[in-house]
């Protein structure tokens, strides 16, 4: 124990953001005026501080073994300092390429398991999410086209950015795979005159979108289904397809099938916009230092992060052609800090909502987990541990591989001017 305490003192002394730690026996280590305070209730959590396992430290906080005080920005600065050389992007070779890894990924992403995993996250509580999301409840990276934009304006800019990239036209049939609370569906219908279809596995989101459709009188132009992407009929393909914040839930083993499904659902010559979180490292299947395990346990069970090169590989393998890719990583860092700040400003109300709407054994843990998750992901995007890509693809009208007479045709102009007019 003396050796561990000596290591802890040395680690705390090295931090640029000071931390004061109370040990289980009651003594304190660190400067008294530190902006971050940790009360360690269990000695089992001490190695997480000395070894830089900040994901495991987060687990200890969620489980009540450690209490934390301080702003989330200070807490995350301190957490980054605790890493002390531990690489969150440390390669994990063979995890996906091995037969065992592929079987594990497939087992995590059956129709039944995926439905359960989506329900765990997205059906937590609509009122809880409404506290810290924008009024449209757009639960994905915003687009700060102008630096002075509010979160709400930046989310509208993101919705419009997607619609512009897809060149949506009145009367086109548009599909949103993983439609969330309906922000993109309704924006596309109201501002671009499309016939919008959405699918989701979240019961809460499904009912919310149905209510919005009725309130806005859009029953004939906007439709939503409770449906897995693998179950969506491709009998009548769509002109345009979007999938926003969705492929993170698909799993490495199912990515080829996912892109093959996107292609089947998209008419030849049509365009799709794939928007999702990717790994910052080429060979890490999740964030290291215990952070990936934390997110999988408390936030996104079954979630898998792929490097953008892997995503593009599987996309090309399906016969889709990538025509434009844009990295919005800094935009997601700012989005997540906006969400985190909004939640931190309403912690009492958030706790009341969860206690009323969530099973008692999960309510307190969920709030502690989301506080760490939102701020931790903001830090992760700032530091390049994760990225956010929008990939615009076409379903070629012709055969890319056989060189048939028509070749690869589409409506895409192969220049970006139209996106920014």
Automatic annotation (TrEMBL):
<dbReference type="InterPro" id="IPR029063">
    <property type="entry name" value="SAM-dependent_MTases_sf"/>
</dbReference>
<dbReference type="InterPro" id="IPR003333">
    <property type="entry name" value="CMAS"/>
</dbReference>
<keyword id="KW-0808">Transferase</keyword>
<dbReference type="GO" id="GO:0032259">
    <property type="term" value="P:methylation"/>
</dbReference>
<feature type="active site">
    <location>
        <position position="377"/>
    </location>
</feature>
<keyword id="KW-0489">Methyltransferase</keyword>
<comment type="similarity">
    <text>Belongs to the CFA/CMAS family.</text>
</comment>
<dbReference type="GO" id="GO:0008610">
    <property type="term" value="P:lipid biosynthetic process"/>
</dbReference>
<protein>
    <submittedName>
        <fullName>SAM-dependent methyltransferase</fullName>
    </submittedName>
</protein>
<dbReference type="Pfam" id="PF02353">
    <property type="entry name" value="CMAS"/>
</dbReference>
<keyword id="KW-0949">S-adenosyl-L-methionine</keyword>
<keyword id="KW-0443">Lipid metabolism</keyword>
<dbReference type="InterPro" id="IPR050723">
    <property type="entry name" value="CFA/CMAS"/>
</dbReference>
<dbReference type="GO" id="GO:0008168">
    <property type="term" value="F:methyltransferase activity"/>
</dbReference>
